[in-house]
Write a structure and sequence with these properties.
With 436 residues, this protein is of the alpha+beta class. It is 51% helix and 21% strand. The strands form two sheets. It has a six-stranded antiparallel sheet with strand order 3-2-1-6-5-4. It starts with a helix and ends in a 6-residue tail after the last helix.
Length: 436
C-alpha cells in the first residue's frame, strides 16, 4: 500500500466517531486493493459465547445483520488462533461452507476465507472475516492489507473503550438514581410518622403498659430503620464517589491513548510529507527549504535553521533558515566545536534548553549568552557520519520544548539525514549559494 493511502486511512480511523465509520474507511481501503474481496466484522458476545451481529461495509454505509451463531461452529484449531488474536487464519477446510456461515456470497469459485480475532483488554471482542478470490500468482490480499489492519486494530480498541466507558456511566447513573429514590422514599415515610407523633393530642387516655411497650418497640424499630437507611445512603455515596474517581481515571487514560494515537498518525503524516517532497523536488534549494519548512511548522518554531557539512575540514555552513536576523546570510561558515550548533555537532548529542536563564549551567554551552526562549539543537547523523545540525527556536505562543518534542525531532532528523545523504544536498546546494 502506498504511504499516501496508509496516512489517509490513519487519519480517517483517528477521526472516526464510531465503529461504522471506521468500517467504511476499511472497506474503501480494501476496495482499492481488491475489488473482488469482501470484508465483515462479526461481534462476539462473551457471556453467551456466540457470534451476535455481522457488520459489513457496503459503499458509504454499513449493513447490520443478526447472526446468533455459536462460536464452536468454527474448527477447533481456527477457534484457538482466533482467541489468541494476531494475523489472519485461513479456513481451508470447507471454506465455502464457513464463508456462507459468515454471511458471504460464495459466487467466487474457489474463494478463500480468512478470519482473525480482535481483542480488547485481553478478551475477544469481535472476529474480522475476509473472503477473497483464490490467486495463482501475486500477493494475497490479507498480506497487502496487514498495515491497514494494524491501524484498524488501534481504532477498534479505542472505540470499544469509549463504548465501555459510556455504558459504565449509564449504569452508574441508574444505580445512583435508584439508591437516591429509595432513600427519599424511606425518608418521607419517617417524616410522615414523625408528624403523626408530634400531632398526637396530650389529653388522650393513658395507654396500658402492654400498649406502651408495643409503642416503644415500634419507635425503636423506626429509629433503627432510619439509622440503617442513613447508613445505606452513606455507603451509596461512598461507592458513588469511588466510582466517579475510577471513571475520571479511565477518562484520563482514554485521553492519553487517544493522544498517543493522534501523535502516531501525525508522525506517519510527516514521514509521508517528507518522502513525497523527496520524490517531487528536483532542485536542491526547493528540497532543503521544503524540509526546513516542514519541521519548523510542525514544531511551531518562529526561528529555525539547517546547517550542513561544509567541504572545508571541521566546518558547517548555513544551508537554509527562517526568521533569522537579516545580517545572517546563507552559506556562512562556523567551525565545529564553536557556538551552540558547533558544539552540538562535535558532541553529536541533542541539546534541549527550556529556560535561557539556566542555559549557562549546561556543560555544552558554558559561557554562551542567549536572549531567546526555549530551543532545540539536534545533530543530523547518518551511518555514523555527521550530516549537519537542525536548530529550532522560539516556539509559538510562548510555549517551551519538552523531551517528547526532542523524540519527534529525532525521527524527523533521521528522515532529513537520509534524504540529505541520498541526494548529496551538502554538495549540490553549495553550487546555488553566492557565499563560499
Amino acid at each position: 500500500m502506498p504511504p499516501r493511502s496508509l496516512a489517509s486511512l490513519a487519519h480517517a480511523l483517528a477521526a472516526a466517531p464510531d465503529l461504522e465509520h471506521a468500517l467504511v474507511a476499511m472497506g474503501e481501503c480494501l476496495l482499492e486493493l481488491d475489488r473482488g474481496a469482501s470484508l465483515a466484522l462479526i461481534q462476539y458476545n462473551a457471556r453467551r459465547d456466540m457470534l451476535a451481529e455481522r457488520l459489513a461495509p457496503v459503499g458509504a454505509r454499513v449493513v447490520r445483520t443478526a447472526m446468533e451463531t455459536t462460536f464452536d461452529h468454527l474448527p477447533e484449531p481456527v477457534r484457538q488462533r482466533i482467541l489468541a488474536g494476531g494475523p489472519f487464519v485461513d479456513v481451508t477446510d470447507r471454506s465455502a461452507d464457513y464463508a456462507r456461515l459468515c454471511g458471504f456470497s460464495t459466487q467466487l469459485e474457489g474463494g478463500v476465507l480468512a478470519v482473525r480475532g480482535m481483542k480488547v483488554e485481553g478478551q475477544l471482542g469481535a472476529v474480522l472475516a475476509l473472503y477473497e478470490p483464490r490467486k495463482i500468482f501475486g500477493t494475497r490480499t490479507t498480506e497487502r492489507l496487514a498495515p491497514a489492519l494494524a491501524l484498524f486494530d488501534l481504532a477498534f480498541v479505542r472505540l470499544a473503550e469509549r463504548d465501555a466507558r459510556l455504558e459504565a456511566v449509564k449504569t452508574l447513573e441508574d444505580i445512583t438514581q435508584r439508591v437516591h429514590g429509595e432513600y427519599v422514599r424511606k425518608l418521607s415515610a419517617l417524616e410522615a410518622e414523625l408528624r403523626v407523633v408530634r400531632n398526637t393530642p396530650r389529653d388522650v387516655v393513658a395507654l396500658n403498659p402492654a400498649e406502651a411497650i408495643a409503642l416503644q418497640a415500634d419507635a425503636a424499630r423506626a429509629v433503627e430503620e432510619a439509622r440503617r437507611s442513613t447508613r445505606k445512603a452513606e455507603l451509596a455515596e461512598q461507592q458513588l464517589g469511588a466510582a466517579v474517581s475510577q471513571l475520571e481515571q479511565a477518562h484520563i487514560e482514554l485521553h492519553r491513548r487517544s493522544e498517543a494515537l493522534r501523535q502516531r498518525t501525525r508522525t506517519l503524516y510527516l514521514v509521508d510529507r517528507a518522502l513525497t517532497l523527496d520524490a517531487q523536488a528536483h532542485e536542491a534549494r526547493a528540497l532543503v527549504d521544503g524540509l526546513l519548512s516542514l519541521v519548523g511548522d510542525d514544531m511551531q518554531a518562529q526561528r529555525c535553521s539547517l546547517m550542513l557539512r561544509a567541504p572545508e575540514p571541521d566546518h558547517l555552513y548555513l544551508a537554509a533558515a527562517r526568521g533569522i536576523a537579516p545580517n545572517v546570510v546563507e552559506g556562512m561558515r562556523i567551525r565545529i566545536g564553536e557556538g551552540v550548533a558547533g558544539r552540538v555537532a562535535a558532541a553529536r548529542e541533542p541539546l534541549l534548553v527550556q529556560d535561557v536563564r539556566e542555559a549557562a549551567q549546561h556543560p555544552l554551552l558554558r559561557d554562551q549568552y542567549f536572549t531567546t526562549g526555549s530551543f532545540i539543537s539536534f545533530p543530523l547523523v547518518y551511518h555514523d557520519e555527521l550530516v549537519g545540525v537542525l536548530n529550532l527556536t522560539n516556539r509559538a505562543q510562548r510555549g517551551i520544548y519538552t523531551e517528547e518534542d526532542v523524540e519527534r525531532v529525532r525521527l524527523l532528523g533521521l528522515v532529513i539525514s537520509l534524504i540529505a545523504s541520498r541526494n548529496g544536498l551538502s554538495e549540490r546546494l553549495l553550487e546555488t549559494l553566492d557565499v563560499r
